[in-house]
Design a protein that fits this description.
Elements lengths: L1 H26 L5 H31 L3 H27 L8 H22 L1
């Protein structure tokens, strides 16, 4: 499982850099300041949680495989898809209703961090 999380986290990190550059150069002229800020928030949270996913993969090397670590990694992956994905879609489409699902991704992020803490605490 550690290879999966390090690989997926790395790919999300790559996409975060690519999407950030796309937003800064290609979208700057076509989005309002608010929509560009929403887009950049998606990029920032994607990168932070890409690093978190990599951390989960590396933690499994030190802590061993556990259900809590699996939940941590998958929760962060789901969080990126829902949180960042909804902000990208909102920014590019202007459909404000998409913002209503963003908090679901935020809850997934929170769950991921709590699961990582629980996995570390159990091994301490």
């Amino acid at each position: 499982m550690n290879r999966v999380f390090v690989t997926v986290g790395s790919l999300f990190g790559f996409l975060s850099v690519a999407l950030g550059a796309f937003g800064a150069h290609a979208l700057k002229a076509s989005l309002t300041a608010d929509m560009l800020a929403n887009y950049q928030t998606g990029v920032q949270y994607q990168m932070m949680h890409a690093l978190g996913i990599i951390g989960v993969g590396l933690a499994s090397l030190a802590l061993g495989r556990s259900r809590a670590l699996q939940w941590a990694g998958w929760s962060m992956i789901i969080g990126i898809i829902i949180f960042s994905g909804s902000l990208y879609a909102l920014s590019l489409s202007g459909i404000k209703m998409l913002g209503a699902i963003t908090p679901i991704g935020g809850v997934a992020f929170l769950l991921g961090w709590l699961c990582l803490a629980a996995a570390a605490w159990k091994k301490a």
